[in-house]
Amino acid sequence: MPIVQDQEPALACPICGSVYVFPISVRCNPAGDHHGEVQIENGGILWNPAVEPEGRGVRIELVFRCESGHAFAYVMHFHKGNTFVSRNLTPTEPPNKIIWRT
User: How many domains does the chain have?
Assistant: First the structure.
């Protein structure tokens, strides 16, 4: 059953259950054998052309941190009309700052 707060489902930390969860990074990789990754973090938009391709389709990773400090990510892979969603409890080097706060 989803957690409901103020009449809307709320994202909860999969480790501790806290609903005080904040986005800290968005990462996107292109499809196929193209190298590179776009990251949106508190410091701005970053492009890293050295990142190796992962999977066969476009990959989008949304990284979150709860107020207790747990980091986790939801990863979406798009391939041949399908969208695959997975959860990662150990995202690679998550930043510490919330995207929209300075």
Answer: 1
Can you give the pLDDT at residue 4? 64
Tokens for 48, please give them.
């890293």
Say if 76 falls within a structural domain: yes
| pTM as predicted | 0.80
**HEC-encoded secondary structure of 11-74:** CCCCCCCCCCEEEEEEEEECCCCCCCEEEEECCEEEEECCCCCCCCCEEEEEEEEECCCCEEEE
Residue 58 lies in a domain: yes
Residues in the chain: 102
pLDDT in tens, 76-85: 988 888 899 9
> Distance between CA atoms of 45 and 42, rounded to whole angstroms?
8
Query: 3 - beta bridge partners?
Result: 10
